[in-house]
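Entry 14. Structure prediction run on the chain below.
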Amino acid sequence: MGIDYTTVIELPRNRVTQEQSERMFRRYCFAAHFPAGKDMLEVACETGQGLDYLAKRAKKAFGADHTERLIKEAKRYYEERLSLLRLDAHFLPFMDHCFDVVILYEAIYYLANTEKFFYEDRRVLRKDEVLLIATVN
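Output returned:
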């Protein structure tokens, strides 16, 4: 788990274009109704820029990222308000069928094995629940 993606993402306090900001805003607004009263996981949450917005609606929310620096920054900001952990998206450390919503925004192209992620996603999602994926393309 040694790859550091901080050079290719929008970090807090870094300048971003208006287009980047609007794109992030639209993604999280679109997702907002999905976790209402449900258990959710955001994989590749970075520093949790949109996680708090979604977590306020969720019954239970977890944020996770591969990059240790990003999770540390998210934990420093959120303190104990949110459950945050470092993980490999190919091996989700959760029980079967424990989430209603899984979110993967702007990260599918960083996965070494998307099939393995989709297997894990299906494993942790409850029947007939939702995986949200966003990509710039």
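Residues 15-134 form a domain with the Rossmann fold fold (CATH 3.40.50.150).
Filed with the rest of this week's runs.
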